[in-house]
Amino acid sequence: MIAYLKGLLIHKSPSEAIVDCGGVGYRCIISLFTYEKLPNIEQPCLLYTHFHIREDAHLLYGFADVKEKNIFQMLISVNGVGPATAINILSASNPAELHSAIIRSSIQSLQSIKGIGPKTAQRIILELKDKLGKDAGFSVENSGSSIKRDAMSALQNMGFTRMAAEQTIEQLFRQFPQPLTLEEIIRLALKAR
User: Fold this and answer.
1) Three-class SS of residue 47?
2) What is the mean pLDDT of residues 94-107?
3) In the chain, how many H helices and how many E strands?
4) Domain formed by 141-192, architecture
5) Superfamily of domain 4-63 in the CATH hierarchy
6) What global pTM score does this model have?
């Protein structure tokens, strides 16, 4: 529904941020990992978001990067892990540490996080180990492949054929040796079309 927010950071605390986008302030629940990466107040800010609807509330969760958002969404797919628990987990360890703990099947690392017992830790490892092992987007070395995959999906949703999207993305990566953000890739691809 709401993929990201780009605007001025109006307020920040270790548990929430408010981003002004065109005169509307969006309150996002955030992790400590995201809080540490936020700019100063009144500075431009970009938060990737997850919109969660409950019977009694509509909540917006904000993330510093796509990797953190992806792992949050994987965590809430685990039976017994809700958004509040997932934010707790991401506040206690950054996405790279969490990824490593799950791949190594380190139940102790997960149990050290407040609110995670032995059964929940085992369930997280059991349900996510294979998913994280296959997803190269979580390894630091292959972060470019995650962006390429996200760009492919976005461009196809905008009407590009799979082949045209692949060719455009590869051309952009050859043309611009410095790392490109997802937004830059999409903007440049649309200009080149």
Assistant:
1) strand
2) 87
3) 9, 5
4) Orthogonal Bundle (1.10)
5) Nucleic acid-binding proteins (2.40.50.140)
6) 0.68
